[in-house]
TrEMBL record:
<dbReference type="InterPro" id="IPR005123">
    <property type="entry name" value="Oxoglu/Fe-dep_dioxygenase_dom"/>
</dbReference>
<feature type="domain" description="Fe2OG dioxygenase">
    <location>
        <begin position="139"/>
        <end position="252"/>
    </location>
</feature>
<dbReference type="GO" id="GO:0016491">
    <property type="term" value="F:oxidoreductase activity"/>
</dbReference>
<keyword id="KW-0479">Metal-binding</keyword>
<comment type="similarity">
    <text>Belongs to the iron/ascorbate-dependent oxidoreductase family.</text>
</comment>
<keyword id="KW-0560">Oxidoreductase</keyword>
<keyword id="KW-0408">Iron</keyword>
<dbReference type="Pfam" id="PF09859">
    <property type="entry name" value="Oxygenase-NA"/>
</dbReference>
<dbReference type="GO" id="GO:0046872">
    <property type="term" value="F:metal ion binding"/>
</dbReference>
<protein>
    <submittedName>
        <fullName>Proline hydroxylase</fullName>
    </submittedName>
</protein>
<dbReference type="InterPro" id="IPR018655">
    <property type="entry name" value="DUF2086"/>
</dbReference>
Length: 253
């Protein structure tokens, strides 16, 4: 069969900006406080069920102009399941969400650097931040779509793609838990110096996003703030199919 031509993303055509508007109406006071306390926060109902299924459909229908590569996780020891990296230009809705989300998270990124005794240096706009990635030779798109079937899982990891790294990332659950899959929970671990690691399970509904630390975050101890290492992964999918979109703000080398 001939490969079908790349299709435009039919997610509520003309409403690509709706998710960015929903972002603006999140409780950012709560989100910022939870990020400081736990290194993770949930943004409820960022995408509608129709937007979720529209986007998830891209996994099968998107051609080489949508995705730049596919990774079969077992081949790299990353777990079981697969994912595809989007190529630039990103689907309009994801591009707008990524840009808008950066704008909401940059204050936390700069605050975290200040807590760790670093000079806060993240620019206010994502466009400027991408220029910084490009100057460091990081030019490839990192947003991705992940697809897990029953039995699949994602080993604990950190999404670093070069020296330039934004400290927060987001994952959006496109599938409906219980209806479309069981199991498959987003899990975070926090590796505290000279202590046992702390696990967190992040409950997500369809269309919810989790924002969390990419690799480390500041934690207040008895002698000021120190850096704790964070990793994320996904527990085994017990039944059904689970699809997510990952939004990472740095480009890849
Ligand atoms: O599927 C998930 O919930 C996690 C995906 C992930 O590792 C990522 O977006 O970086
Ligand atoms: Fe990841």
């Amino acid at each position: 069969m001939a490969a079908s031509p790349p299709q435009p993303v039919r997610v509520a055509a003309g409403h690509e900006d709706e998710p960015a508007r929903r972002l603006a109406s999140q409780d950012w006071f709560r989100v910022d406080a939870e990020l400081d306390r736990d290194g993770v926060s949930v943004l409820p109902a960022l995408l509608s069920a129709a937007e979720c299924s529209g986007l998830a459909g891209l996994y099968d229908t998107g051609g080489p102009r949508t995705f730049r590569s596919k990774v079969v996780m077992a081949r790299h020891g990353f777990g079981l399941g697969e994912y595809k990296y989007f190529d630039y230009p990103l689907p309009e809705m994801l591009s707008r969400l990524r840009t808008a989300l950066y704008g909401h998270l940059v204050a936390t990124a700069n605050r975290w650097d200040a807590m760790l005794g670093l000079e806060p240096s993240f620019p206010p706009s994502h466009a400027e931040y991408l220029q910084r990635c490009h100057a460091a030779g990081q030019t490839r798109a990192t947003p991705l779509m992940l697809r897990y079937a029953a039995g699949d899982f994602n080993c604990l990891h950190q999404d670093l793609y070069g020296a330039v790294a934004f400290p927060l990332q987001a994952v959006i659950l496109l599938s409906a838990p219980e209806d479309e899959f069981e199991g498959g929970e987003l899990v975070l671990t926090e590796q505290r110096p000279r202590m046992q690691s702390r696990p967190q399970v992040v409950p997500l509904g369809q269309g919810d996003a989790a924002v969390f630390a990419v690799s480390h975050r500041p934690v207040k101890g008895s002698r000021g703030f120190h850096r704790v290492n964070m990793r994320h992964g996904v527990s085994r999918i017990r039944s059904g199919t689970r699809t997510t979109v990952g939004l990472i703000f740095h480009d890849a080398a």
